[in-house]
């Protein structure tokens, strides 16, 4: 399978497993898991054919580790980034002192005034390093990396979660914890 095919499958899985499973009439359980056989069958009916080996390659080689299988590879889900209501069953964790948020230059003034909202997603996403945050910010325009004082937020009672693919998640970031 070439890189273009992998990317096409990955984008389709992101749409289905994170945002719109109804497009192919796929059933996700309350924790966002889909049956792999059902996923393959319903994708195939929508002209998105792939083998289990190809699906495994997409999951294993995705640069952002967006997806995960259960232990016996009978179920699959997205690690985070959902706009649909699911429970990832993540446990609160203490974050490092600082995390980073990548955004576009044109969002900075609003963020510094109002904070960072999760909007249509279940959580605000934060990166452990500036490089990852830069990649995220580049998707939306000229990137700006914001430093988030997550240690202070945690001290103040804000909850944080760590997804399977090491993205830090929280519900909202007040502007007082953000610096350029």
Automatic annotation (TrEMBL):
<keyword id="KW-0520">NAD</keyword>
<dbReference type="GO" id="GO:0003950">
    <property type="term" value="F:NAD+ poly-ADP-ribosyltransferase activity"/>
</dbReference>
<comment type="function">
    <text>Removes the 2'-phosphate from RNA via an intermediate in which the phosphate is ADP-ribosylated by NAD followed by a presumed transesterification to release the RNA and generate ADP-ribose 1''-2''-cyclic phosphate (APPR&gt;P). May function as an ADP-ribosylase.</text>
</comment>
<dbReference type="InterPro" id="IPR042080">
    <property type="entry name" value="RNA_2'-PTrans_N"/>
</dbReference>
<dbReference type="InterPro" id="IPR042081">
    <property type="entry name" value="RNA_2'-PTrans_C"/>
</dbReference>
<comment type="similarity">
    <text>Belongs to the KptA/TPT1 family.</text>
</comment>
<dbReference type="InterPro" id="IPR022928">
    <property type="entry name" value="RNA_2'-PTrans_KptA"/>
</dbReference>
<dbReference type="GO" id="GO:0006388">
    <property type="term" value="P:tRNA splicing, via endonucleolytic cleavage and ligation"/>
</dbReference>
<dbReference type="InterPro" id="IPR002745">
    <property type="entry name" value="Ptrans_KptA/Tpt1"/>
</dbReference>
<keyword id="KW-0808">Transferase</keyword>
<dbReference type="GO" id="GO:0000215">
    <property type="term" value="F:tRNA 2'-phosphotransferase activity"/>
</dbReference>
<protein>
    <recommendedName>
        <fullName>Probable RNA 2'-phosphotransferase</fullName>
        <ecNumber>2.7.1.-</ecNumber>
    </recommendedName>
</protein>
<dbReference type="Pfam" id="PF01885">
    <property type="entry name" value="PTS_2-RNA"/>
</dbReference>
């Amino acid at each position: 399978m070439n890189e273009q095919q992998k990317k096409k499958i990955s984008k389709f899985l992101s749409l289905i497993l994170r945002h719109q499973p109804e497009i192919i009439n796929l059933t996700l359980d309350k924790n966002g898991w889909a049956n792999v056989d059902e996923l393959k069958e319903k994708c195939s009916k929508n002209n998105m054919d792939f083998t289990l080996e190809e699906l495994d390659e997409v999951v294993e080689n995705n640069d952002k580790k967006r997806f995960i299988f259960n232990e016996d590879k009978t179920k699959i889900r997205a690690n985070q980034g959902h706009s649909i209501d699911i429970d990832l069953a993540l446990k609160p964790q203490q974050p490092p002192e600082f995390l980073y948020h990548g955004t576009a230059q044109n969002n900075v003034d609003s963020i510094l005034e109002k904070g960072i909202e999760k909007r249509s997603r279940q959580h605000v996403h934060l990166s452990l390093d500036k490089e990852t945050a830069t990649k995220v910010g580049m998707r939306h325009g000229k990137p700006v990396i914001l430093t988030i004082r997550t240690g202070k937020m945690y001290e103040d009672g804000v909850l944080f979660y760590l997804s399977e693919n090491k993205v830090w998640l929280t519900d909202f970031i007040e502007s007082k914890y953000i610096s350029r």
